Structure formats: structure tokens, C-alpha cells
Amino acid sequence: MTQPLDTLWYTRCPVPTGLGIAVQKGWLQATVGALGTEVQSLRESDDKAVRESHFDHTLRNSVRHGGNIPAIWARAQGRETRVIGLSWADEVQLILTRQDSGIKTVKDLKGRTFGLPDWAGAQIDFTRAQALRGLENALSLEGLKVGDVKLKNFRYGGTFSDTPVHSIAGTPVTQRVTERNLELIGLLRGEVDAIFLKGAHAAQQAHDFGLHTVIDTGSHPDPLIRSNNGTPRTLAVDLNLLENHFDVASGILDSVLRAEQWAHTHPEETRRYLAQETNSSEYWVTAAYGNDAHLRLRTGLDDQAIAALQDFTHFLHRWRFIPNSFDVREWIDARPLEALLNGKTALAG
């Protein structure tokens, strides 16, 4: 018989996820704790290599729920991970300009300068990839290509894992000087004509600086236009956890689904949790994720999410963020979800 797992490492992005709520409510800890397993936050570790596993999935017996770019990149690098769930919470994805730029529509972007983040020291620059995706998708709606605009890079120093995350009053916070958005500063200074921002902070910054939204690809009816780093988000575990501690993997998914089901009937409390997760306010959470943000927390393995993940994987290969593309269906392991749907939960009750 397999020995109980000592420690499960968890990590989630500062975005709406079922795992984030399950952690905040203590349900992940209770569910896997009943199996004899301690739960630790990967991003709060003092060890940078452990923190970097949020992006490269090198840490054994870990789970990550968040943006799909690092997960796809790690898989393309040969990391033995498996996706056990996909969540899709639509969010604002904004192409922004200054009011005096003369840019009113996507067509007006032709020949203009677009600012891109450039985290040269990071293993996978997800910020650059998601900005390029938003730009390419927006331009494609008018028959334009990225080559029709000029690109200007804004170089960041260090990596995304240089400092630990600290939980302050329930909000995961990382204290980095480079938290300042260099592309936004460049836009305000007139160094570029347009940039891409997404999520609650994008909605707030667009308002605070009086910026013009050229397009919100996050609200487009075509799911492939909405598809980006956060749509869908991957719930991924390493293969060792799945093969040797299947009860823990099922327990993770159990707590995520339980948190999401709770959210569907607790809209106001959910908004408060999401505000903590995103280090924002309930107002901007609503602006970014909708009045029905609590209903958008749904993890499964539906065909639309899988198709979008495949399309986005091809995009990352085409732009050379990953060395090769792959079949995402071979990356998915539906066994934990099937076990839960068949009533075989890791924790009774």
C-alpha cells in the first residue's frame, strides 16, 4: 500500500479560480489533510527554485490552477504534468490608447506603435505572449496582422519569482519594484500608441487614466478570439502525484468543485474572495469579470475549452514561445473528474 503523501504544494494565479477560493475557505487543507497530507503554498516558499515551479512545474507533488501559458510551456519542455480540469472565466482583455491618439477602432492601429512587455530573464514570458495574443486576435477581426503595427519592447529586469508572495489580510501580495507597468507608463508618456491589459487592474487603470478602449477581445462572441492565457485556465498536477497519490489528486479537484458550487449561490461573498485573490476591489472585479463572476467559476473538461487550449498551444508554437506544439488531449487525464462525477469522492460528506 502507498504511504500517505507528506506534503502537497499548491499555487494559483492572482485571478478567479476555484482553487483560490478552496484555499481561502480552508477546504483544500481539510480535504487532503484528512488523507494525512500537509498543504503548503509554493509561492510563499523562501526557496526561489520552489517558487519558480509556479512557472516551470518542476516540483513533485504539486498542483497549479491559473494561466495556461506556463503550464503549456512546461509541458512542451517535457515536464510530466497532467491537466485534470479546465476553467473558463471570461475577463476584460483590452487594447488601450490615449484619448488623443487618433485611434478609435482596430483599423486605426495600422502603422502605429504597440508596446509589449519583455521579461528577458524569465523562463517563459507569459505577459508578452498574452499581449501578442490579444493584439493578433484584435487585428485579425479587421484582416490585419501583427506585422501591420510597429512593436516596441519594454524591458523588465529579474524574474517573476524573485520575491516570495505574502498573504496580507487574505490577499496574496508580492512586493516587487517592477510591479509598475512599464508599457502603461510608456503609453502615458506618448512613447507608444497602444498596449494590452487584462483583468481587474486593466479595468481600473483604463478608468483612472482616462484611456480609450479600442476593443475588448474578452467580450467577443467567438471563444477563439476570447481564448488567451486565462481562457481557459489549467488545473494541472504532476504525474507522480496522479500515479502514486490519486486520492490526493481527486481531493484537490473535489475541493475545487465544492468551492465553485458554493460560489454559485454566494455571489456577494464570492466577489469579496475574488477581490482578495486579485488584490483589487469588488467593484473592479465586477467590471472585469461581470456581475455573474460567481457563476463563471466552473471547472470541467468541455470540448470548447479543450479546442481553445489546442488553438492557443499552436499560437505559442507559431510565435516561438514553445519549441514544439502537441496534442492537448494527450495531456489531459480525466480520471479524477470521472471518479468525482461517479460519486467516488476523496472525502466523504
From TrEMBL:
Residues 72-118 form the SsuA/THI5-like domain. It holds the Pfam family NMT1. Gene3D superfamilies: 3.40.190.270, Periplasmic binding protein-like II. This is ABC transporter substrate-binding protein. It comes from Pseudomonas yamanorum.
